[in-house]
Amino acid sequence: MTTRTLNIKDLELQVKQMYHKVAVQPEGDFHFELGRTVAERIGYPPNYLDAVPAAAVDSFAGVGYFFDLAGIGAGETVLDVGSGSGTDSVIAAGLCGPGGRVIGVDMTDAQIDKASRLAAERGLEQVEFRKGYIERLPVEDAAVDVVISNGVFNLVSDKTAVFGEVARVLRPGGRLALADIVSKSQLPEAVTCDAALWASCIGGAMQIDSYQDAIEAAGMSVETVRHNDRYRFLSDSADDATRKWGVKSISLLARNRP
Ligand SMILES: C[S@@+](CC[C@H](N)C(=O)[O-])C[C@H]1O[C@@H](n2cnc3c(N)ncnc32)[C@H](O)[C@@H]1O
To answer: How many degrees, rounded to 5, is the angle at CA 147 between CA 142 and CA 153?
Structure first.
């Protein structure tokens, strides 16, 4: 029997290529839906989306809605982990207001460039985008009230590192509100070792119980888990994975333990 392993460098390259294309050519072909139609279907209120530059919404690649769970208040500091073209960061900026602060972190140049340009054009001085890896967040300890993230953790091979980083930057009692792709059963090696399936948000889907255990082990308590049955993939291979292994979208709220 041969044991396959995921090539981490190849994975990073494929993820960067995929999300470069999402930023610059959102009308292209993808395994997943992009833009305003999917955002509205998964629960984003139209008035939230109206407040975001249309070009950012065109590149929206989120998988679920979580702002109702996040409960972002005026003056809060928000960190958007894997901020993409910035849709969720701009919505968070509206919720925390000019007295709050939003930091978006992403590793893909085209996403950071697009998000930064569009937020600056809107005069959103409370929003800042930093290029970086979420396994080593470029953010100080205990500096953040709310971490948000949409469709990102499944793309990362070292999920323990990422949840550890989230717990490090959250203040005690701070919240993690996310949407992500998980699976009902453990995916087979043929899927988890395929970098192209990872980059499409399928191969890296962690089994749901292990996912929650990893969050708890990092020092956070999971308070809410909600299944998002309105999110769906587009390609046959993705559909197949959904049927065979229960690959699905969830929204989740966790709180950093004091
Ligand atoms: C599915 S997209 C979601 C983007 C955004 N949250 C949204 O809803 O449109 C995933 C994003 O995570 C970023 N990403 C993936 N792995 C990363 C990592 N290890 N470090 C930093 N960014 C990462 C990608 O560049 C991409 O922009």
So the answer is: 120
| Pairwise CA distance, residues 103 & 127, whole Å | 6
Nearest partner of 92 among 151, 152, 139, 146, judged by Cα? 146
Question: Residue 1: is its pLDDT beyond 50?
Answer: no
Q: Where are the domains of the chain?
A: 13-256
Judge if the beta carbon of residue 153 lies within 6 A of ligand 1: no
The fold adopted by the segment(s) 13-256 is: Rossmann fold (3.40.50)
Residue 239 Cα to ligand 1 midpoint, Å, equals: 22
Cα of 5 to ligand 1 centre, how many Å? 22
The DSSP result for 64-77, as a single string, is ---HHHH---TT-E
| 86: region left, alpha or beta (phi > 0 left; psi from -120 to 50 alpha) | left
Q: What is the pTM of this model?
A: 0.96
Contact 248, 184 (CB under 8 A): yes
Residues 76-92 pLDDT 10s = 999 999 999 999 999 99
**Cα–ligand 1 centroid distance for 108 (angstroms):** 8
Share of the chain above pLDDT 70, in %: 98
Q: What does the CA dihedral 43, 163, 217, 193 come to, rounded to 10 degrees?
A: 90
Residue 177 phi, psi (nearest 5): -120, 125
